[in-house]
Amino acid sequence: MEEVNVVVLCGGKGTRLGPLGQEIPKGLVKINDVPILHRTLDLYSKNNLNNFVLCIGYKGEMIKDYFKDKNHFNIRFSDSGEDANMLKRIYDTKDLVEDNILIVYGDTYADINLKELLMRHISSDSLVTMVTTKIKNPWGLIKVNESGKIADYEEKPILNYYMGILVLSKKAFELMSKEMLESKNEEGLVLFFKELVRLGKLGNYSHEGLHITFNTHSEKELANNIFEYFTYMENDKV
Q: Can you say whether residue 88 is alpha, beta or left, with left for phi > 0 and alpha for psi between -120 and 50 degrees?
């Protein structure tokens, strides 16, 4: 696999984790006794991707301190401050990375076929390839017409959603406008994606395997159980 920089977004606050999210950055929250950020780096390192740029912000010094003696990872840091949106954090890495950048959320763990993902992106004309997965909506969805009547009803449809992992060609930095970079929270990233859609330059890669992420304590406990089961099944194959 060609040399690829892995940009990890780990500068946000885990506000929905309550006091735990106030004590430590979300990436250092543990899944089965190991921070999810560490597990994420391990996963990519095992796939021969070991050049990381960690985009820190909230309590970033704690992340620096945690990895200071983890010399088997090649890590550089980019600090855009606590208030920068996700797109600004990505943009601020542009002088640290080469082309075809893998961008991942620091609180997301997924067993993607990285070689296939990268080849899919490189062989396409997309500036960004987004990793998506399927989810079954738990409700019946309706469409309402201008007269207030229900025009369509679909029972618990299968939808696709963005997993927080993508491959970005360096040329895509040119599309990141000042408005996008100064927008609040995820709004800048949404505007960026919409511009790529308008240009026909946003590709899709579907993933159906393991996917762990969390925002609340209950989701964290579920993530613990999923990872424990996954580890058991992997060990059982040996």
A: alpha
